[in-house]
Amino acid sequence: MTPTDLALEARGLRKRYGDKQAVDGLDLAVHRGEIFSVLGPNGAGKTTTVEILEGYRERDGGEVRVLGEDPQTAGREWRSRIGVVLQDTRDLAEANVGELVRHFAAYYPRPHDPEHVIDLVGLRDKVRTRVRQLSGGQRRRLDVALGIVGRPELLFLDEPTTGFDPEARRSFWDLVRDLRDQGTTILLTTHYLDEAEQLADRVAVVQDGRVVALDRPSELGGRAARLAVVRWVEDGVPREIRTDEPTRTVVELAGRWADARGSAAPLEVPGLQVLHPSLEDVYLALIGVETSVAPVVPTLQGSTR
Ligand SMILES: Nc1ncnc2c1ncn2[C@@H]1O[C@H](COP(=O)(O)OP(=O)(O)OP(=O)(O)O)[C@@H](O)[C@H]1O
Question: Which of 38, 47, 50, 192 is the best mutation target for the ligand 1 pocket, counting ligand atoms within 8 Å of the beta carbon and taking the most?
């Protein structure tokens, strides 16, 4: 991988607020053209990290390159190449949707057609509506429109679908995939595990200011974390086996169960269940939260949860 294949790279990133070490030696490398998701519990250091990468916050230590430049010293030309979905457009409450998107487009050298962007985010029928009259979900779509209208090479999406209804989330996901397919690199922070699973090419789990796991969503936590759990109840005692061959395990269990009871035909095994850990189960195990499927996961820090 050459440095130019990376849209952004952070090494040993550190940031402290008073006696709180919010970012504590964090490493991150995002390839050009990928959707990279950052997951982590409240207070893990995600927003601080993203704001440093966006150039809105100074770091205490570490190396950062975003589109080849240090965000702390990069100029206007660099800023026009990144897109940031603002959390809040309240200051602009009196403008209407169409005015605002056109106004933002004018700041960029190669913007998308504002009308096309308004269609893309599904706000065509709100084009003359003032910002303060939009619903929460419509406001987020407007935030996204403002983030992408400048045709950014790198787009930061911070919890973009908060307040969306299920249908709006799905159409937003399609929009994000389209942007990626057109070559936009996307850094997505989200609290929705299904969103990361649907969208992200790779996921980093951040806890206590460090990356504790990094992989494709389907591989996160490693093979052991993905083992199926076969459960049943024997003599009133719950039993379980972790296996990558749940079908064979169930067939063997059923055969043994019937044999032990002198039956030639299969018998129902009480409480039989086959469970597959979801990304959410793996994620919760990584950050140390117990769930009913609780897989065993190694973290990048060397410990096992
Ligand atoms: N301006 C600040 N001054 C002091 N402490 C701060 C400041 N900003 C963040 N912190 C603290 O730094 C830690 C990391 O916060 P940060 O907002 O980066 O986490 P986060 O992962 O984005 O959390 P959330 O998911 O809740 O948005 C938290 O303990 C937070 O209280």
Answer: 47
User: Three-state SS across 208-239?
Assistant: CCEEEEEECCCCCCHHHHCCEEEEEEECCEEE
How far is 55 from 109, CA to CA, in rounded Å? Answer: 20
Sign of CA dihedral 154, 72, 158, 133: negative
Side chain identity at residue 259, one-letter code: D
Which pair of structure tokens corresponds to residue 285? 């195990």
* CATH class for the region spanning 6-219: alpha beta
> From the alpha carbon of 209, which atom of ligand 1 is closest?
14
pLDDT value of position 91:
65
pLDDT at res. 298: 64
For residue 141, what pLDDT is reported?
86
Query: Mean pLDDT, 10 residues at a time, over the chain (305 residues)?
Result: 79 96 97 96 94 95 96 92 73 84 90 92 93 87 90 91 82 89 93 91 96 92 84 93 93 94 93 90 86 67 57
Are the C-beta atoms of residues 96 and 127 closer than 8 Å to each other? Answer: yes
Residue having the nearest C-alpha atom to atom 25 of ligand 1: 42
Largest Cα separation within the chain, whole Å, is 80
CA 292 to ligand 1 centroid distance, Å: 30
CA of 46 to the centre of ligand 1 (A): 8
Domain boundaries, given as residue ranges, for the chain = 6-219, 227-275
Tell me the best of 13, 20, 60, 205 to mutate to test the pocket of ligand 1, counting ligand atoms within 8 Å of each CB and taking the most. Answer: 20
Query: Cβ < 6 Å from ligand 1: which residues?
Result: 17, 20, 22, 40, 42-48
Residue nearest to atom 7 of ligand 1 (CA): 17
**d(C-alpha 268, C-alpha 254), whole Å:** 8
Of all protein residues, the one whose alpha carbon is nearest to atom 18 of ligand 1 is 45
- With beta carbons less than 8 A apart as the criterion, state whether 287 and 274 touch: no
Q: Which amino acid is at 208?
A: D
